[in-house]
Structure formats: C-alpha cells, structure tokens
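Single-stranded DNA-binding protein: structure tokens wanted.
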Amino acid sequence: MSSLNKVILIGNLGRDPEVRYMPNGEPVCNFSIATSETWNDRNSGQRQERTEWHNITMYRRLAEIAGQYLKKGSSVYIEGRIQSRKYQGKDGIERTAYEIIANEMKMLGSRQSGGGASYDEGYQQGGYQQSAPQQQYQNAAPAYNQEPPAAPARRAPAAAPAVPVDDIDDDIPF
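Answer:
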C-alpha cells in the first residue's frame, strides 16, 4: 500500500523569513506561520480560540522568493510535507521537532501587501523550472511581473464543400 505525506496550511507569518545559504550555495528559508481555530465552548458558551504555530522550511528558488516578498504578518498558503527531526536539548534530553518542508507557496492578499502570486518547487508561472542552475534565475523577476506566454495561434479548419441534402427531415434522429 502506498502512503501520503501532504500538509496544506493557510496562515500568517509570525516573524520575518530568515534566509541562509548551505555550503553548496543553495538558499534555505525558515519562518513560522500561525493557524487559528475558533469554537464556542459547550459549557460556558464563550468563544474559544487556539493558535497553532508551524515551522516552515523552503529551499532553492522558493526560499529566495519567500525571503524577498514575505514579511511578518503576511498571509500565505503553504503546501508541503511534514518532517520530524531529533535533537538534544540544552538539558541533555532528546527532543523531536516537526517542520513543514514547503514545495508550494501562494502569497495571499493584495499585491501591495506582497501577496497574490503563486510559486511552487517544480514550476513558477511563466514556465520556470526549480531545478535550473542557480545562475539562470538570479535575475528572474517574480511571476506576477511577467507577461504570460502568448497562446499558440489556431488555424481555422478547412471548409468542406457544401453537399445538397434532398430530405433533411429523414436525418433528424428524434
């Protein structure tokens, strides 16, 4: 049986994205987003709210875009997978951290607030492929500033010569 590890979140950034570079030169971006759920308490009738914080990690071009266009408070749609990581705390106890490895991001909100565009790990609008060498995308503009590629021109089908029909009522199937 196959399995699936997919996470979809819509939330707001709790801090500005932090972009660092790995030894091989690839960028990595880390930030956290908050998601909230609200409900009415059955006993008291009071409105309750719980906020959950999610650590997000992005790599390559997606990391550069997030670092450039996102800021604290930005509303964002994230798609990716959950990954656990074990580490030893300062007290010597082994702990587990969970993070979302994002492979798609949609900036929500107006363009003035830095939102409204969509990027994913495989393709960006305009046909940009994530796996392209770094020098090819250093000067790439965001997708929403580019004109979409022109649609291929369609040719009209060749007109068939008209054939006279003697009794059109016989051809109607109903």
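Helices lie at 60-69, 134-137. The beta strands are 7-13, 18-21, 27-40, 47-59, 75-88, 94-107, 118-120, 123-124, 128-129.

Cheers.
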